[in-house]
């Protein structure tokens, strides 16, 4: 259980029981943050009663695969975002739900795969801004989430570039491995796009002037910086999708070219084989023909087979058909 208490911009207490939250929140000079990891419905019901959270927001927490969003209620905000972790070379989104009240921030993590250490370090490194209260804490959380997205986009971009460079170095034997890597990268990019694109709407809603959700003017430039990072991530994801499409098209072109080369060679050998077959078939007729029943006929057919085959081979080799 992670808990923190700020008073007048100073961290006064952390690691206290959740049962004390209602007492601390009652003082408007206090700002409280606490975290729940995979909580039970009973735990959420207790928190909802203490902070006056809307039942629809609680229902969204208990539902799986919610879209990143911001819901505005009378006394609080409900935000859904996704952190990302890389395990076994694959991307795994982790849902993080956030309740924002006037002087409390509650994070609800789907699992412990979303590490809060980075968020805490971000808060501590910018402790001089803690006087901005919940707005400061929310910014640190969102900034950490978006930076995770940025790092993983950069990782995917490096993988796609490496795939592009090795595309023409792949042997036929490695074609299946290349195809599998391309498929996994496309799946990871789709996951990333699904959780990063709605972040534009999330940060944009927080910055919208008519909503005035980020009430502290001093914090607005920081949220705008996060929004700029979100735009860069989404543009980068689209660029990666285009690169993967180009890799796929190039691979299909390579396969078509390879098939044409194979068919050209097979056809050339078939033509070479057809000439001896025609000659030996002619000399195998059951009717009289020049050289029938004499050694001359055998040697004539043999010489014709050899000359015709060698001539066709030479012509096809010169035209690079073999």
Fold and architecture overview:
With 322 residues, the chain is an alpha+beta fold. Helix content is 57%, strand content 16%. It is built from nine helices and seven strands, in the order E-E-H-E-H-H-E-E-E-E-H-H-H-H-H-H. Strands 2-1-3-7-6-5-4 form a seven-stranded mixed β-sheet. The longest helix has 63 residues, at 220-282.
Task: List descriptors.
9 helices; 7 strands; 16% strand; seven-stranded mixed sheet; alpha+beta; 322 residues; rod-shaped; single chain
Secondary-structure element series: EEHEHHEEEEHHHHHH
Please state the oligomeric state of the protein chains shown. Answer: single chain
Structural class: alpha+beta
The total of beta strands comes to 7
Q: For the report, how would you describe the main beta sheet?
A: 7 strands, mixed
Taking strands numbered 1, 2, ... along the chain, how are they ordered across the largest sheet? 2-1-3-7-6-5-4
Rg from alpha-carbon coordinates: 35 Å
Count of helices? 9
| Mean pLDDT level | 85
Which percent bin holds the helix content? 55-70%
- End-to-end separation in angstroms reads 72 Å
What sort of overall outline do the alpha carbons produce when their principal axes are compared? Answer: rod-shaped
Estimated share of beta-strand residues: 15-25%
Poorly predicted segments: none
What would you say about this model in short?
57% of the residues lie in helices and 16% in strands.
Tell me the layout of helices and strands.
Blueprint: E1 2-7, E2 10-14, H1 21-25, E3 30-37, H2 41-51, H3 55-62, E4 69-72, E5 77-87, E6 90-100, E7 104-109, H4 117-125, H5 134-166, H6 175-196, H7 199-207, H8 220-282, H9 295-318
Parallel strand pairs: 3-7
Antiparallel strand pairs: 1-2, 1-3, 4-5, 5-6, 6-7
Helix pairs in contact: 4-5, 5-6, 5-8, 6-8, 7-8, 8-9
